[in-house]
Design a protein that fits this description.
The structure is a homodimer. By secondary structure, chain A is mainly alpha-helical. Chain A has helices spanning 32-52, 59-65, 70-76, 80-99, 105-108, 112-129, 131-138, 144-168, 174-197, 202-219. Chain A is elongated. Chain A binds a DNA duplex through helix 1 and helix 3.
DNA sequence: GGCAAACACGAGCGATCACTCGCGTTCCAC
DNA sequence: GTGGAACGCGAGTGATCGCTCGTGTTTGCC
């Protein structure tokens, strides 16, 4: 009996509940202590995932990090994957909140250097504050559900980047625009790893400025005229 | 994995020395069949590491992939880590061989676009042909020995990049030069992931060209004069 | 105070993993 | 041919992991 899903118990329902919630499989009432434990466990899971990755992290280690017993952990999460999913969803929500305002139309009207600041800074700040995010998302050992959500985020971010590129280089073919957006984001991810690896302080700030320089030099030529077939852009040899 | 982490140092297979010492723990004579089995096992290990990562890969799965029994696997490797180490060393050796000629002085005399071709192309070709290399090196779950060797390779490659930058921008301060080299390599790694993710064929070729465009636009401004304090380089904003 | 439910524990269960061992087979020097 | 070593096998071993369960404690409500 490994299945613990309280699906339905049609037999011998003692009393019809006055409150009608047809779609509530878990009417578990949480106390304030329980909510605190959940946050505590998720924080511990973030630490362990961050230093060991998902698969190498053991649930016992997470429980120990949170100073609770394994049984207590499994009172709040049905299995190990659910811990990662809940943590991933919370981080994703924070991420969308912190980053959602970066691509507003008013920011899109900014010149490229300022737009870069507006987009890159919150992204870097979030990843510095939540290193578990990249550890969960970038790791190839993440559970399927996390990978799906990360893909969804990735696709939406790429769409935003394509919008920006379309704004600055309206004459560019869609296929090339997609390629430039991919490359922009990929190089940003590479630079982000560098920024996170740098020690906090002036070194990290310098690295952030360097990353912006890279992106600016890559994208700036797109803003000058249509430039559909310049000598620098994707010369098809042969 | 375990928090105690005894971290013993497993002795690597000693290379055959011309000098005959009485204390030789492994005078194992290999037959041709054995050498074939080793290559077969390493190929199987490369496949399994590539699709599952190091920790998630089981030795039984490697043996199954090689169509041998677990006992046969352990006749040639003392433990799981030794498989990864041997595979990593062989890949590293191939890598240095394929890439060692990229930074020769004659190539360094080339103009930047051609130098980029000479350096980037073999690097990409090698990683396309050996996807297990990045799976072993880039994964955070690799055994300590692999990580060390990867770090060593990383350091030596960065030194080469710094040399190139010093050649094209002699007036740049050493600290900034190191930062530019780091950023160049980091963005290349990000772009490399993109290239490997692209399907083989014209799409991949276009992505390779795009990566070179990125690197060229980033590095080209360095070639024009000393440029120690241009408006684009590492502007500290507020 | 009394009670039910939520909370907390930690020993233990089944599964899986890295790895071993005893025994049979194939190769090669002599 | 023959003996010894390299090769090959696969069930088995100890350890660890994800997860459960019986039991005891705390909390909220009357």
């Amino acid at each position: 009996m490994s299945e613990d899903a309280p699906e339905d118990v049609p037999e011998a329902t003692p009393e019809a509940t006055s409150e009608v919630t047809s779609e509530e499989p878990k009417p578990r009432r949480r106390q304030a202590r329980g909510e605190r434990r959940i946050a505590q466990l998720l924080q511990a899971a973030a630490n362990v995932f961050c230093s060991n990755g998902y698969t190498a992290a053991s649930t016992n280690a997470i429980a120990r990090e949170a100073h609770v017993s394994p049984g207590t952990l499994y009172q709040y999460f049905p299995n190990k994957e659910a811990i990662a999913i809940e943590l991933g969803e919370r981080l994703l929500h924070q991420m969308r909140e912190a980053h959602g305002q970066a691509f507003t139309p008013e920011n899109l009207a900014l010149p490229l250097p300022e737009l870069l600041d507006a987009v890159v800074d919150p992204m870097i700040e979030f990843n510095c504050a939540n290193p578990a995010f990249l550890a969960l998302m970038h790791g190839s050992d993440a559970p399927g559900r996390i990978a799906e959500e990360h893909d969804a985020l990735h696709v939406s971010l790429l769409a935003r980047v394509r919008e920006v590129i379309a704004h600055f280089a309206p004459g560019m073919p869609a296929q090339e625009r997609a390629r430039v957006a991919d490359m922009t984001f990929a190089s940003f991810k590479g630079g982000l790893d560098l920024v996170l690896a740098a020690p906090e302080g002036p070194e990290r700030d310098a690295m952030i400025a360097e990353l912006k320089t890279l992106l600016l030099r890559y994208l700036a030529p797109l803003t000058e005229g249509p430039l559909t077939e310049g000598p620098l852009t994707t010369t098809r040899s042969h």
